[in-house]
Protein 1
Amino acid sequence: MKRHDVVLIGGGHNGLVAACYLQRAGLDVLVLEKNAWVGGAATSRDTGTGVTFSNCSYVCSLFRPEIMRDLELPRHGLQVIAYEGGVVFTEDGDYLAAYRDHDAHRREIARFSPRDAEAYETYARDVTRQCRFIQPLLMRTAPDPVSLKPRDIGELLWLARRFGNFTAEEMAATARFWTMSIADFLDEYFETEVLKAYLAISGIIGTALGPMSPGTAYVLLHHYMGEVDGSVGAWGYARGGMGAVTQALASSFRASGGTIRTDAAVEKVLTRGGRATGVVLDSGEEVAARRVVSNADVKRTFLKLVEPADLPEPFLHRVRQFKMRGSSGKLNIALDGMPEFPALPEGCRCTMGDMHFSDSIERLERGYDDWKAGRWSADPFLDMMIPTQLDPTMAPPGQHFMSCFVQYCPPKVEGRDWTDADRDAFAETVVSQIADYSPGFRDRIIGMEVRTPRELEAEVGLTEGNIFQGELTFDQLLFNRPVPGYAQYRSPIPGLYICGSSTHPGGGVMGAPGRNAAREILRDMRLSPKEMRPAHDVL
Amino acid sequence: MIAPRRHPAQDHFRQPLTETPFHPRLAALCETESWYNWAGQKALHSVYDEELEYFAIRSTAAVFDISPMIKYRIRGPGAEAMLNRLTLRDVRKLAPGRVQYTAWCDDAGEVLDDGTLFRPGPQEFRLCSQGRHLPWILDTAEGFDCTVEDESTAIAGLALQGPASFAVLQAAGFSGLETLKTFNIRDLPHEGGQVTISRTGFTGDLGYELFCPAEAALSLWDRLWSAGAPLGLKPIGYNALDRARIEAGFIVPGTDFIATDLALRADRARLPDEIGLDWLVDPAKTQFNGRRAIMAARAKGGPRHVLVGLEVEDNTPAVGAILYHHKKREAGVVSSAIWSPMLKRNIAIASLDAPYGSRITEDLWVEIYALRELRYHKLMKRARIVPRPFLKLRRRTVTPPGLV
């Protein structure tokens, strides 16, 4: 039987990033993907409507430019397009738009509050300062604070120096920012409800917390620290849908000699003498490898793919307690025309970006209350995009793809499993909310893909359908992600690694976990990470 | 406090840059089409010829549209006390009818902006600045009996600068200004309303600033224009003004220092003492924003940065140049620089890192990269610290003003 250097479980974006770097370092890497396609939660497929959907993730900003360059992703077809603005529709028939143009944006906020229009500058400065602090941490392995290894001590000193450069004021601001709720944080700057609601969404998206829950301010940062070509905080569309990211990765991987097997679901990780030796597929086929890397989330990896007897009990306990709660769903809608929003003036470009209908923090928090009771929100918040306005490759002319992220949506409905009837009722809640603001919307629908946590878990393998492979709260970040003592992509089983969003620096289509994991694996194999150029400086 | 109100206009996205009240006149005179964005409004780099416009400032008279300046109106029995808390200087010493150049800081003593504080009446003030500060001023105003109103777009502003500026005003029928001294204000009638004229400016020359309601802007322009043409009145853009202001030694936020509320890098913020504004700080005032931090820094041994005027040998302007001590050790950066036509000297404004500029003031050099037809001339030129203003004109302050 052929023995691979590395077998990778799961062809999501982080798995493919790790696979690319390992293959390019001269290893023989095999990626095993349970679906008939690669991509994990970064896929785009036509599910029979004639319109291509970004089926799960739908916008691109966090994906590290260093990785795009190292792995030559533009040459393999990846294009990321910046988009304009966004909008929140208000219940009274008005709206708050966001514009790329600084002055148009200021005047828009000034419609609601001249004070907030100016306060936005300070808010943007403070959030950017936090981004600038966190960005250099993304592409580094989090140091183990109790380790005495020279490298960990060196990294801790590096971190301490960064804190040491802080003024007392910055130190206080940072400690508060990492722990406070997004609602409290926004209250320090703004008085306009709809503006706060708009900005709060980045603090709760994908997270089973409400805007008033402590820790949500950091989640906002996680969505601001990306960039499109150096424009920090900007978001863009992957041309062709988010699958373009993973298709480019797969193409780059194959071009460097790597092998991908689809329809190859891994049943178990094989161990011998306490060491990972390969995997067994659900067909019973065994695949031998010197090292096994799992792109699956930490729960799926250690609670399903590994025998509990192979793991120490405290580790298992920590994995079980790791917060990975389903909180969101998604509707992918094919439309036979651009929906109308009568609240907007004609020609307003804000429909190119993210659209929402939640105009107060309180409505967002009430939506969370429903989730706590085990129901989907009766008044959910939507993060809605129509990328086909800028991307002609996803739909026939005149038709559109509307991506509609929906929160909150529980992993179980009042304690029982989701049914198809639940799923349809959930979809109806969303469609009726859109139709309230867009007359004739229902008539434009030519097809729809509805995804609750049930579908997300079944297709992508995300436990409970949690899009980040674990909440991005401070208790689960850096050297605590996913488990203290195992935050450096290694596991208690020698030869078994994890590289998905459950690891530092966390979720989003970022690729940093995959790259960091590849670096640690190569270190263990005493190989140099060739073609892994240093992370960009933050000037 | 102003009540936040919902503004119905929703079409602003179609034209992100708005037009000032003087725009129709400027657009008609403009030959260069060199429009730029000044605080969200269209402004001109130059109107017809930057160099000739500069000489209008120094020889005849020039009008520069300052309407995009941010203008806050502060009124009420507590206005003086509030502004005394907000700004560095003692506002109690600012008599009604006078103007004060001033600056204000955050609680860390770091400069938010500099600007001019007008006091048209005992309980009436106008604060003019480059940056927007409404949240900060409203927060400071808490507990003081006063109102704060942003009148930036409601009020048009025009700088009339140059040796003939008094003559232009006189010819335009604004009488009685021969007694108006530097930093004094007077209200004069115009078209059934009033125009506020102050003897202030940003050129170091004889000059005035005129403020009127936006609706009266065009008639004010026309009144000056018909009277001023025989005296050589010219419209100018920012580039000409910038030359004059460097000669006058004035600093510009965003160019010569970074306002702390906009600084992404916390170490770029500056105390007043670090940008040459120490003279504005009135330690006798027991309370003002930033006082504790400013005084603590002084007690700790002086500023960590020093803003200075430089005279650079030879004639190549040193814009953006790095300063070195002994040609080796990096000592600071040049933020503004020109060849001065009035002084026939190569002058610059620079920020030095202490002890350069404080304890060490000799053996300073600037490294100039002069790009000439696709080749850099790398120059290392000696720089001497000289007092600001570089240019002092007697006509700026003489009362009554003449033409010389």
Protein 2
Amino acid sequence: MTVPVLILGARSDIARATARAFAAKRHPIQLAARGAEGLAADKADLETRYNVEVTLHDFDALDVAGHEAFVDGLPALPGIAVSAIGLMGEQAENETDPAKAVAVMRSNFEGPAVILGVLANRFVNRGSGTLVGISSVAGDRGRASNYVYGAAKAGFTAFLSGLRNRLAKQNVHVVTVKPGFVNTAMTAHLDLPARLTAEPREVALAIVQAVEKSRNIIYVRPIWRLVMTVICAIPEAVFKKTSI
Amino acid sequence: MQLSGWGNFPKAEARVSAPRDEAALAALVAEGSAIARGNGRAYGDSAISPRNTIDMRHFDRMLSFNPATGQLVAEAGVMLADVIDAFLPRGWFPMVTPGTKLITLGGAIAADVHGKNHHVDGSFRACVDWIDVMGPGGEVSRCSHEENAEMFDWTLGGMGLTGVILRCAIRLRPVKSGWIRQQMIPADTLSAAIDAFEANMGIPYSVAWIDCAAKGAHLGRSLVMLGEHAEPGEVPPRYRATPFKATRHRKIPFPMNAPGFVLNPLTVRAFNAAYYWKGARQKGTRIVDWDGYFYPLDAILHWNRLYGRRGFMQFQCVLPQDAAREGMQRLLSAISESGQASFLSVLKRFGPQDSAFSFPMEGYTLALDFPRSRAAIALMPELDAITLDHGGRFYLAKDSRMPAEILAQADPRAEAFAEWRRDRGLPASFASLQSERLHL
């Protein structure tokens, strides 16, 4: 079934790879991001490679009041919507600058949760659809190195879990994606271990497969499920003294 | 990070940046000593600059395709494999492709690569309509045969030393299937192999694998492989409904650097003899799929690890037509006498070539690889000298070790290229370990 796929936060490396992976399966693509006209080359790329229809849509995840109008403005209600919205921020800045912390919290939780909530209601009315939220392993347990980002992702993960529970009987499916480390612009300044680091294309293919197979929660590299199980199992009294 | 070319030699500590847009790219170029790098398939040090190597693989968008002309406009980081994935199902194939599809378009242009059809279609340049090149100040100029023609000429084969190739328009070739009609001609001697090439100049693809370990009466024994795109009716029955669809080859990863003893003169000799006799039994015509025909080594990921941690050297020269028979005989004798048989050796007829600094010329090219052993390193100057004696020249995309004097003697165009670069103040902006070694 080649339903249209909406990619929210379409400028990120994971979003671009995801758009390609769905377009390769002949889905029409709706790319949504701030300053969408800047995505003209990505639109051309998807059209040229895959011969699919691609539309560009201005979308500000933080303008939650405008989300209903944004969905109204789409050429068709998508069959699949993927939120790749996110902002890593700098933990040190988030600790001292409330405005920066709020931006991270809103970008990783409030914005994505509100737009997926709006789409969820439309999907329920139609009686079908799949919502994909790209969350993070950072949300599995708060750590000193990135707990503001992690807390927002934890909120998003919980939101997706609840949404999935609510919609399970209404033929609307929700996929939670926890990519682990990914080699992207967001992490270009970090020195990441190769075995734990996925390429954006790997994340994209995992997402397409999760949608096709109606998976609930996926870790892109299976080793992350183990890593996070171990991290979550450490008693708090011990955990608080570690620096992971 | 530590960086090397496909031959795993030389290795150098280099700062590598991977910009995502033109502004970030321009800022990097402004820092000087920049060299653009694609998928790292040049064998030596062509795409390494310790101070400023620029990974272009984020520039990977295809921008337009015109089915009336077959013209594809794409960013320089798009790989040939992506082009095939996107367009072979619609009946288009690259006009010119080297023996790997895992190269970027920018790299193909910078090295002006050639394929099995050089004798008919020429080098990659023949399919390039225009290129956009970023200069030292971040300015971008469109270059073609008509517009900025001098820049176009030097950039094709200019090894990234004229600027950063950003975008290009290339023409694809319409094909009727993804299959190749291959004709295998066993040739017992070098002379017979050359005769086979000369007798089949009208066949679009031709290449010969040479058994470099063969001696005496068998010196230069080869399997000459000719190829043409097959008609839909020739496609094997089980694939006939989808004649463009690839038969999926499983990719076999080569797990680690092989220990040094795996490739020694004895195993190489045994492999080459076995390969020849296996091929000789396949004499005649067969229908084979495009991936196995054009890209046999791509099926083994990281095949360069076969040569172990020390890496390997490629030697590729071309000899002009009138000197080719005698010169190739001498090269092969020298190799065979040294006992340093090359694991994979390829002979190919080139057609005429008209360009400023590209490698090919009308004649014969020989490509060899050697592990970086002391004996093989000692053999290189001998091969260089024979090439010079016969008016030949060398392929920079394969080079990792040539002295500047040898290049200067072999190719007077090198000094002209260096002078052209100096006149424009380019050496400070664009440089690689290779350009410094070869004084380009």
